[in-house]
Design goal:
There is one protein chain. 29% of the residues lie in helices and 28% in strands. Strands 4-5-3-6 form a 4-stranded antiparallel beta sheet, covered by helices on one side. Strands 1-2 form a two-stranded antiparallel ribbon.
Length: 205
């Protein structure tokens, strides 16, 4: 062997031994095992970039329960029972703003507002027949929007003042009516589903 290679070979053997995978003897196995552990898991930079554990866990959504009818108060000698103030009109903006005005006015006059809700929108189609023709075509579609403000225990002395203010500030094209609350009014809040009702009746039979 060349004398230069003889001097270099021991250095190469030492470098190979240094780079070799470390071995350890396990007493139970009775042999050598390769140490392939990851030492960077415990370092301060481990887990950088993870953010999902910082989010607050959301509670499972509960099913909405069906709205139950509230107890109707009977009228007394000095106060009315449960009254419905209905506002109807073709312009939804006017109807919505007028119902908000009634709600705020009742709060100022210290009148109890038990509920405030919207009724299903009713649609009417207006047909037009041309002269010397039997065919009809849709000329316009009218949508009636209704809002209800429900009052409780309105005193007889305060009722004339409330009605006077409501009539003075009633916008054009908006109809106003006040009547006692009944069970039919409560059922009118929900849209009829005849197909579902027919299936339920078939199942019950």
């Amino acid at each position: 062997m060349h004398p230069v290679l003889r001097k270099v070979s021991p250095l190469l053997s030492q470098a190979v031994l240094c780079r070799a995978t470390p071995l350890s003897l396990h007493p139970a196995w009775g042999g050598a095992t390769v140490l392939n552990e990851r030492h960077y898991n415990g370092m301060p930079t481990y887990g950088i970039g993870r953010w999902r554990h910082l989010l607050i866990k959301e509670a499972p959504k509960k099913k909405k329960e069906r709205i139950q009818m509230k107890e109707m108060l009977p009228a007394s000698s000095t106060a009315y029972g449960t009254l419905n103030v209905e506002i109807a009109g073709y312009d939804m903006t006017l109807v919505e703003h007028y119902s908000q005005y009634i709600h705020n006015l009742c709060h100022r006059l210290e009148i109890t507002v038990s509920d405030c809700y919207a009724l299903p929108t009713h649609t009417k189609e207006v047909y037009l027949m041309q002269e010397q023709s039997t065919k009809m075509h849709v000329d316009s579609i009218l949508k009636t929007h209704t809002r209800v403000v429900q009052l409780r225990s309105l005193t007889a002395t305060l009722c004339p003042t409330l009605m006077e203010l409501l009539l003075k500030n009633q916008p054009e094209g908006v109809q106003l009516s006040v009547k006692e609350h009944t069970e039919a009014d409560f059922l009118g809040r929900f849209k009829a589903r005849p197909e579902l009702e027919g299936l339920i009746s078939q199942i019950n039979q």
